[in-house]
TrEMBL record:
Pathway given in the UniProt record: Purine metabolism; IMP biosynthesis via de novo pathway; 5-amino-1-(5-phospho-D-ribosyl)imidazole from N(2)-formyl-N(1)-(5-phospho-D-ribosyl)glycinamide: step 1/2
Coiled-coil features, chain-numbered ranges: none
Protein name: Phosphoribosylformylglycinamidine synthase subunit PurQ
Predominant location category: cytoplasm
The species this protein was found in: Mycolicibacterium tokaiense
Gene assigned in the entry: purQ
């Protein structure tokens, strides 16, 4: 029995095909989810992929959070379903209240597009268990509004509870405390700004380091 991983498509989504491919490479069945349908089609996990949902009008992810499918994602996440938000998906999860904080314009106001090193600070989440704690992985980053910010009290809570999952080895966008990715309190919801789905095959990416994220989710689903 293979896990079924849903991948949402919003108007303006760019990386849904890549996320679905990454899920398949890890051994899952990828299931397309449409933003206007309040139906998760019985999937075991959900990926909210990168892109420019609804053209990034207002704030990035601010419109997507009201899509019918996101209401179902929020309910499923509250019930323990693994949910991953990548780049714009991370923004959507923050706007939806599933993760704290916000993603703002990069320091220097420039779009950053390059391969970067991340350190795995927490390997106990549904999306990071395949990594060794402290491991460094090489994945692409491509965002103009990727600077993670939150009040000091929230940052202290994230640090204290071990909910910083990924941290930049060299901070490219001014994110507070070098944060590249965080998790929910139960470790089932994870958001990160870099793109692991673009680092799944050595032929097309800087590495295949991103595959561990998708294998981790399958472990979480199949051993639940």
């Amino acid at each position: 029995m293979s896990a079924r991983v849903g991948v949402i498509t919003f108007p303006g989504t760019l990386d849904d095909i890549d996320a679905a491919r990454a899920a398949r490479l890890a051994g899952a069945e990828a299931v397309n989810l449409w933003h206007a349908d309040a139906d998760l089609k019985g999937v075991d996990a959900v990926i909210v992929p990168g892109g420019f949902s609804y053209g990034d009008y207002l704030r990035c992810g601010a419109i997507a959070r009201f899509a019918p499918v996101m209401g179902e994602v929020v309910k499923a996440a509250e019930g323990g379903m693994p949910v991953l938000g990548i780049c714009n998906g991370f923004q959507v999860l923050c706007e939806s209240g599933l993760l704290p904080g916000a993603l703002t314009r990069n320091a220097g106001l420039h779009f950053v597009c390059r391969d970067i090193w991340l350190r795995v600070d927490n390997n106990r989440t549904a999306w990071s268990s395949r990594y060794e704690a402290g491991a460094e992985i090489l994945v692409p980053l491509k965002s103009g509004e990727g600077r993670y910010v939150a009040p000091d009290a929230v940052l202290d809570e994230l640090e204290g509870e071990g909910r910083v999952v990924f941290r930049y080895a060299e901070n490219p966008n001014g994110s507070q405390r070098d944060i590249a990715g965080i998790s929910s309190a139960n470790g089932r919801v994870v958001g990160l700004m870099p793109h692991p789905e673009h680092a799944t095959e050595a032929l097309t990416g800087p590495s295949d380091d991103g595959l561990g994220i998708f294998f981790s989710a399958l472990d979480a689903v199949l051993t639940a």
